[in-house]
Write a structure and sequence with these properties.
This protein has helices at residues 2-6, 10-25, 65-92, 98-124, 137-144, 149-177, 181-211, 216-226, 238-243, 248-255. The protein is mostly helical and 257 residues long. The chain has one domain (2-43, 63-255). The longest helix is centred in the C-terminal third of the chain and has 31 residues, at 181-211. It starts with a helix and ends with a helix.
């Protein structure tokens, strides 16, 4: 896992993740032998894209080719960070059940595939990963939640990735208007997988809450306040969130925001 986290070139990171997951599935990785695991607070990333504050990232319009390329590039960057986030979830927290590591290595493998699909489509538009500036907000949240897997499960899958589920229908509408059918197909694959990833976060958040005797729904809301999480803004993709493990009480609460 450490080698994949340290890999800086995107092609090397993707290949490392696919090989790692194949070795895991084949029983070739002994997590106990990897202890103690040293957290990696600065995973490898390429020299480009230039990382700038989120508020400085230009707005992306899908009705022009450069604007659509910038939109796709933003999604490519999200998936690159998502690879590191999934690897970090598996690497940083020892002592979890084997199913936890199986889940997060599977997520890393999915995110690597998403990166490949989006990068290939970006190339058909005449651009490559690194051609536009990006921000590091996803990894910033990884560091903010590094001390506790319960906080990580609450605020990364159930907040940041769930916000991606909310945004997908709006992005799809823009791409349909731009007649980018291939990108719509790719987003359908990503949405299907991301529902599963948020569900994994929900499952392990619930497991950790139960193990500590904490009420899951109240704890989630408290963590949103305590860690100043990004605001939850409608419209919410309630059906996707339901499939991803949000309770009906949580969905009712979201609907009232």
């Amino acid at each position: 896992m450490a080698a994949c986290l340290h890999a800086s070139q995107s092609a090397n990171k993707v290949a490392c993740v696919h090989a790692l997951y194949a070795d895991w599935r084949a029983g070739g990785i002994d997590l106990a032998a990897e202890s103690p695991r040293i957290p990696i607070d600065r995973p490898g990333q390429p020299d480009k894209p230039e990382l700038i504050p989120p508020q400085r990232v230009p707005r992306r319009r899908a009705d022009t080719l450069p604007g659509r390329a910038a939109l796709v590039h933003a999604l490519v960057h999200i998936e690159f960070n998502a690879i590191n986030l999934a690897l970090d979830a598996a690497h940083r927290y020892p002592g979890m059940p084997p199913g936890y590591y199986d889940d997060w290595l599977s997520v890393a493998d999915d995110e690597a595939l998403h990166f490949e699909l989006l990068s290939a489509h970006l190339a058909t538009l005449g651009y490559a990963y690194g051609d536009f500036p990006a921000h590091n907000g996803l990894w910033d949240m990884a560091l903010k939640t590094a001390h506790d897997p319960l906080v990580r499960m609450a605020l990364v899958p159930r907040v940041l990735e769930a916000r991606g589920l909310d945004a997908t229908p709006l992005i799809v509408d823009k791409l349909k208007a731009a007649k980018d059918t291939r990108m719509v197909e790719i987003l359908a694959i990503i949405e299907r997988d991301e529902i599963g990833h948020v569900a994994i976060g929900s499952r392990w958040f619930g497991w950790l809450c139960a193990a500590r005797g904490l009420p899951a729904e109240a704890t989630f809301r408290q963590l949103l306040l305590e860690y100043d999480a990004p605001p939850l803004k409608p419209p919410f993709n309630l059906e996707a969130r339901r499939k991803a493990g949000f309770s009906e009480a949580e969905l009712d609460w979201l609907s009232g925001l």
